Structure to design on (622 residues):
């Protein structure tokens, strides 16, 4: 090697060690800076004619494992989603109360039952009757307040989605800006590692809001996609919008049909293209996904459970079942009922056998033809076939609709007035009408059985009959249930069930019947509320179902809390590993600094030696 080559080599060594010292100093200075990753200086041998003539170095690079980084982002998204759900569910659980607490829904019902039992002992006591009304009012208030909390939480989730979408849109713009800066920095061969740290901080926050995939481009920029594959950022960022609603109630629901949707949705806007990301299933983890799930699934399910409880409570205390009257029409046999007192949502139950196979049918009175045909889930019975009939048409057309819906071996007719007759076909041993009954919600408080409409629908004091018209009367009934003001005005109606003859003031028949309806008789509850299954729905008393609702919410809250702990362990473990691999360790940096200091001194010594040799060579020629 000539002295000139040695000079170039030592000069390159000095420059490399100076650059290395610069990188180490930046590492040490930012050892505790959030988001900063350790940088290192890439070096390689500089060759000429296959021989080393020094050292070459490039811009500092980050020491980072991209796969580990992506794992951490997924873990953070899961952790924040779990925490978000847990926060909301804890509030629902607290409002519902523990089953054994005196503030729970089930406890309120138990207090009502106790008050009814006291009234059954001394029905003539006006003070005891007043206590029954107070306890009934407390039940309605508990259902109202819990339902209002559910809708308040849904509104908070709606606002949370809007805020998160706004932040996500701003983060996309931020990443796009840093992308441009990184591309420019690389084009001039200047370092972009610190810019990449800043970009990662924005992407890290974005990944907490929604699940994203990051794809590196050759120019140093990155493209971003949702977990479902929708592009968020490529050459230019898309925009995200959310049409936040300022008020929600139980009827405010998400629908993929924009004309039916009554809550906000997230729209991805890319040029002239718009995509509903919620309809597309783009959100699978992160804060936005958790809030959407809460708003559209978890909280509506809680509302549905409250509505089911309120609905069955009202119906259990008020509805009256009447068996059909047996009839013989020539060779045909069957039953008939008068449908004149049916309200919309009231039912006629029919059982028949054809060819040895028994079928159960529930005929539902409907006054809104747009809801027809009704699904079999319109009733809670998993073993019946539901037939919805438009009762706004003449009785003859009702009969025609029933005959069209039923097998030919079951013949429906209208012998008189509003009476409906169901008979077999008259052929021996081919068909049988096993039973016929109607279940009616009485509009009067006396002379229509022992039941009592103690609760009504809303401040308008509408009779609740589980009407299927429109969106259905059940939806939101827990938010609207009120005590019947007619009973409040005249508490004697709690015991008076007949005016001819007039019920004796000491007659406990109605109180005892109400107790049995509330706590003794079993009812079937809709499987759609998450308690029980489609084939085996929950069956039990009103009191038992109330306990199941309370326990269900407690279990949901406990599971969510456990998920927070599990996801936090995963996140913290990955965070520790990531910090260990990307963070700055002062001892390591100081060791590197000693190596660089020694190298710098050695290169400087080489330069000094070369200078002395060159001076000797110059002096020889004098």
């Amino acid at each position: 090697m000539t002295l000139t080559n040695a000079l170039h080599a030592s000069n390159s060594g000095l420059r490399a060690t100076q650059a290395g010292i610069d990188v180490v100093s930046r590492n040490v200075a930012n050892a505790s800076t959030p988001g900063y990753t350790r940088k290192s200086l890439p070096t390689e041998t500089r060759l000429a004619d296959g021989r080393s003539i020094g050292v070459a170095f490039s811009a500092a690079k980050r020491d980072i494992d991209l796969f580990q980084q992506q794992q951490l982002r997924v873990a953070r998204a899961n952790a924040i989603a779990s925490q978000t759900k847990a926060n909301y569910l804890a509030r629902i659980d607290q409002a519902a109360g523990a089953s054994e607490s005196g503030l729970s829904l089930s406890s309120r019902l138990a207090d009502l039952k106790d008050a009814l039992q006291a009234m059954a002992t001394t029905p003539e006591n006006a003070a005891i009757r007043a206590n029954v009304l107070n306890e009934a009012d407390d039940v309605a208030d508990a259902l109202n307040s819990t339902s209002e909390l559910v809708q308040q939480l849904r509104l908070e989730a709606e606002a949370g989605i809007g805020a998160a979408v706004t932040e996500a849109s701003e983060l996309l713009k931020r990443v796009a800006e840093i992308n441009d800066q990184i591309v420019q920095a690389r084009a001039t061969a200047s370092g972009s590692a610190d810019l990449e740290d800043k970009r990662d901080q924005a992407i890290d926050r974005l990944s907490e809001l929604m699940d994203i995939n990051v794809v590196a481009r050759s120019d140093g920029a990155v493209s971003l996609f949702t977990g479902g594959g929708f592009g968020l950022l490529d050459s230019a960022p898309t925009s995200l919008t959310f049409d936040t609603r300022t008020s929600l109630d139980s009827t405010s629901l998400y629908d993929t049909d924009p004309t039916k949707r009554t809550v906000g949705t997230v729209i991805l806007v890319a040029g002239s293209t718009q995509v509903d990301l919620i309809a597309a299933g783009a959100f699978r983890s992160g804060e936005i996904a958790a809030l959407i799930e809460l708003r559209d699934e978890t909280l509506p399910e809680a509302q549905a459970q409250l509505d089911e409880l309120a609905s069955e409570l009202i119906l259990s205390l008020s509805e009256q079942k009447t068996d059909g009257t047996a009839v013989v029409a020539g060779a045909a046999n069957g039953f008939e009922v008068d449908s004149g007192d049916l309200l919309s949502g009231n039912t006629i139950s029919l059982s028949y056998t054809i060819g040895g196979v028994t079928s159960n049918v529930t005929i539902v009175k409907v006054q809104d033809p747009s809801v027809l045909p009704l699904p079999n889930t319109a009733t809670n019975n998993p073993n019946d076939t539901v037939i919805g009939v438009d009762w706004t048409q003449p009785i003859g057309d009702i009969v025609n609709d029933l005959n069209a819906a039923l097998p030919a071996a079951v013949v429906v007719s209208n012998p008189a007035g509003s009476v409906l007759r169901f008979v077999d076909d008259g052929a021996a041993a081919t068909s049988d009408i096993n039973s016929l009954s109607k279940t009616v919600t009485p509009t009067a408080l006396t002379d229509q059985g022992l039941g009592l409409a103690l609760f009504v629908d809303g401040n308008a004091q509408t009779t609740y009959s589980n009407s299927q018209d429109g969106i259905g009367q059940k939806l939101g009934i827990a938010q609207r249930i009120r005590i019947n003001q007619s009973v409040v005005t005249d508490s004697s109606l709690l015991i008076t069930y007949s005016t001819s003859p007039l019920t004796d003031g000491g007659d406990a028949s109605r109180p005892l019947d109400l107790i049995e309806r509330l706590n003794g008789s079993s009812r079937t509850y809709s499987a759609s509320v998450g308690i029980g299954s489609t084939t085996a729905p929950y069956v039990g008393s009103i009191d038992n179902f109330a306990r199941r609702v309370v326990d269900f919410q407690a279990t949901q809250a406990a599971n969510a809390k456990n998920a927070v702990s599990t996801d936090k362990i995963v996140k913290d473990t990955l965070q520790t590993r990531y910090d260990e691999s990307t963070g700055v360790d002062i001892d390591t940096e100081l060791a590197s600094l000693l190596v660089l200091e020694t190298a710098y001194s050695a290169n400087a010594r080489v330069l000094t030696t070369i200078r002395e040799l060159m001076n000797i060579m110059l002096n020889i020629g004098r």
